[in-house]
Structures are given as C-alpha cells and as structure tokens.
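User: Could you go from structure to sequence for me? I need the amino acid at each position, not a summary. Structure tokens:
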C-alpha cells in the first residue's frame, strides 16, 4: 500500500515506530521538554536519587564511618599506673617490716607449729630478751624476725624435735607511719606518743610535696584486723584552710602521694 506524501508528520512518526518495533530495534522516546531518555534505560537497579539527596546523605555516612574506624576510646592509663605505684610502695613497707630489728618494748606474737600451749604474746624486756615456757629466757633484741625464730627454735630443741617457730611483731614500741610517693624525703617516721599526728603534719615532716605531687589524690592506706582500707585525703583543700579534711594517723598507716599526670 502506498502512503501519501501529503500525510501529516504525526502519522509518519507512528508508522516509523511501528516498523522499528517489528524489526526488534529499541526505540527511546524523549520526555517532553527534557531531551533525556527514560530512567529505565540506565539499567535495572539504578537509583533515581537527585544530586541534592546524595549530597545530604554524605555527612551521616562519613560520621558512621568515623565511628566504625575509631572504635572505642582507649582507657586512661593513669589509673593503672597509679595503682602499680601504690602496690610498689606497699611492697617496700612489707620489706621494711621484714628487715625490722626487734627493740625493747616491742610486743611479739610467738607461735609453735602443732604446739598451741606454747603460743604466747610477750613483751621484749629492756635487755632485749623474752621469757617463754620450756625455752626460758631467749635473746631476740636487735634481731630481725627470722633470726628471732631461729633463736627461739634452738632454745626449744631440748624438749621438741625440729620445732617450727613463727615470730610476728604485733606491736612496735615506737609507732611508725610511712610517707611515700611524691614527697621530698620519703620513709618511715615515728609518731609522737603524747600527741597524735595528722596527714598534713606527716607530709610536712617528710619535707613537703615535690613539684609533681597530685595533692588532691593523697591516700592513707590502713590495715585493720587483717583488712586493708584506703582513705582519700584532698590535702589541697586542707592547705586552703579546710582543716576538717585532715585526719589523725594510726600506727603503721601508709601515706601515699601519687604523681600528677597532667
């Protein structure tokens, strides 16, 4: 059939589309006023987000990525370092107790293994000796506890086979406190018998703080009935005039002044 050349433009366009469909050719019809093809021509699964939508999504994505990359914040290592310093100070105090030389007036606790009738608490006499059942008078003055144990065991060997003796200083004739950490003269100091000593007085006795001292984190470590108790004292507040923050010390208290990490 012949198509008249006088046919309108719209009719010619419809004929062209029909012929293209029959031949299997894909034909894209532009959208009116855009000059662009249908979004379906971009392929399956294409996202139709506008540039403004994609830009708006980027900040939250960057924040999420930063959180994933950063992970959890590292823990502050200052606390563990300070705890290790406290433990080192307590080890020094225990070593001092082991090396302590028995003095007149000390109260000793004597224990003999499997011999409960021989266990005693005895006070060291002015001449440095003690008196025990079976053993009699035994010299222990100026000895550390290990040598005193050997001395008592030797005195008991006349009556017991290989006696096992333990000597513990239950009470010192001179009451001591230990001032350690960031003070200018750390060490052990006697407590005057007539008047109690406070934390501030003890630190003053030890020469005062060093420039690195964390005064607000001062600790008093006290052993009572076999249990250790830690008391926190803000000496900075005491020096500013708040005397209620100060506290009286007891024999064998350990004052520890930590180092400032800032």
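Assistant: Here is the amino acid at each position, in order:
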């Amino acid at each position: 059939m012949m198509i008249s050349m006088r046919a309108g433009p719209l009719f010619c366009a419809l004929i062209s589309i029909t012929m293209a469909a029959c031949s299997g050719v894909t034909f894209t019809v532009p959208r009116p006023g855009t000059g662009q093809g249908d979004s379906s021509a971009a392929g399956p699964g294409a996202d139709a987000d506008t540039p403004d939508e994609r830009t708006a999504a980027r900040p939250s994505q960057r924040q999420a990525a930063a959180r994933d990359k950063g992970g959890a914040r590292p823990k502050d290592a200052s606390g563990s370092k300070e705890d290790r310093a406290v433990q080192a100070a307590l080890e020094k105090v225990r070593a001092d107790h082991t090396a302590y030389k028995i003095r007149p007036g000390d109260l000793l606790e004597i224990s003999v293994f499997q011999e409960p009738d021989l266990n005693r608490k005895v006070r060291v006499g002015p001449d440095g000796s003690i008196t025990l059942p079976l053993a009699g008078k035994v010299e222990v003055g100026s000895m550390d506890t290990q040598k005193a144990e050997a001395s008592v065991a030797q005195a008991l060997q006349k009556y017991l086979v290989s006696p096992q003796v333990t000597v513990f200083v239950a009470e010192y004739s001179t009451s001591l406190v230990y001032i350690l950490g960031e003070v200018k003269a750390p060490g052990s100091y006697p407590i005057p018998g007539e008047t109690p000593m406070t934390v501030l007085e003890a630190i003053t006795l030890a020469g005062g703080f060093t420039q690195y001292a964390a005064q607000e984190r001062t600790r008093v470590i006290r052993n009572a009935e076999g249990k250790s108790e830690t008391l926190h004292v803000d000496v900075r507040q005491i020096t500013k005039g708040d005397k209620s923050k100060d506290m009286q010390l007891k024999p064998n208290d350990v004052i520890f002044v930590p180092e400032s990490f800032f």
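One structural detail worth keeping in mind: The first strand starts at residue 107 and ends at 112.
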